[in-house]
Amino acid sequence: MKLVITIPAYNEEKTIARVVAEVPRAIEGVDQVEVLVIDDGSTDGTVQQAKEAGADRVVSHSGNMGVGAAFATGRDSALGMGADIIVTMDADGQFDPKDIPRLIEPVLEGQADFVTGSRFLDKRLTPKMSRIKRIGNSFFTRIVNSLTGQKLADTQCGFRAYSWEAALRSNTFADFTYTQEVLIDLLYKKMKVREVPIQVREREGESRVVTHWYSYGLKALVIAIRTFRDHEPLKFFGSVSLLALIPGVIIGLFMLAHWVSTGGTSPFTSLLYLVVALLVMGTIFIVLALIADMLDRLREIEDELLYESKRQRYKDGGRLPR
Fold first, then answer.
1. What distances in angstroms separate CA 255 from CA 160, 259, 277, one per listed residue?
2. What burial class does residue 283 get, using C-beta atoms within 10 Å of its C-beta: 0-12 exposed, 13-18 middle, 19+ buried?
3. All structural domains of the chain with their residue ranges
4. According to a count of CB atoms within 10 Å of the terminal CB, is the N or C end of the chain lower?
5. Can you point out the beta strands (E) in the chain?
6. pTM of the shown model
7. What fold characterizes domain 2-231?
8. At what angle do helices 213-231 and 179-188 cross, to 10 degrees?
9. pLDDT tens, position by position, 295-308
10. 233 prior amide bond cis, ω within 30
11. Distances (CA, A) of 199 to 93, 194, 208, 284
């Protein structure tokens, strides 16, 4: 059983060495632990510090591509290194590597396909954060839970463990971030999820991802909506269609009743144009919903083919093909 700890890093020379050095190398139920650092185009001494601290492998991007791209690189590289379990954690020192054994335990015991650390599951461990960040976390957690039917306490935490199967099943497209996308993607693929309470430590320096909360929130929301659209196109486009059809029908019935009682449409004649526009728009989105639902079936087939392709590539417990 091989565990690979993936650590995306962008200009984290002040903390990366401590994070790498603190990773436990002896964990019950695991035969081998390796540390993989994904250098996302750092311009400081991050790579050198990671190597000197004992990182087993460093993979570098030619430029800063984003934490979502770094996650994808880390996942694929870890599979190529023979990982049976993959843990993702930040390079800023917020997460305690000593929590790794507890994080991977549900995967080792077969109770979960992937495990996410939760900062809010245990109220005693809830970190101090600004009001706006707390509201933002609650908002996105509610969105993800409503889209997936889950009751998770924290859907934004990047401290996670993935089984080999979950890593193969996951497909991500966003470069900016991955936390919402991969969670929604795997839940729609019926992967079993567990939450483990964790306690975060004080961050050293500013976040490399959340530079402006409103910008991060908007981008993350778009990613979540796109992921929902890809997995539930009939619901997505059908909901938009209803938003146009329902008011169109209501106004249309009102106009009809007015015409029956008065013999004319005045003074509401201009509403006829609105009724026509809403009904046409609603009909268009119904057609889009049916087309998207058909394309979703093709996407599912392609996902399965991609999964089988990766399964063959990383067969025998994840070892690189001979």
1. 56, 6, 15
2. middle
3. 2-231, 233-308
4. C
5. 2-9, 32-39, 57-60, 85-88, 114-118, 160-163, 193-197
6. 0.82
7. Spore Coat Polysaccharide Biosynthesis Protein SpsA; Chain A (3.90.550)
8. 20
9. 998 989 999 999 99
10. no
11. 12, 16, 20, 49
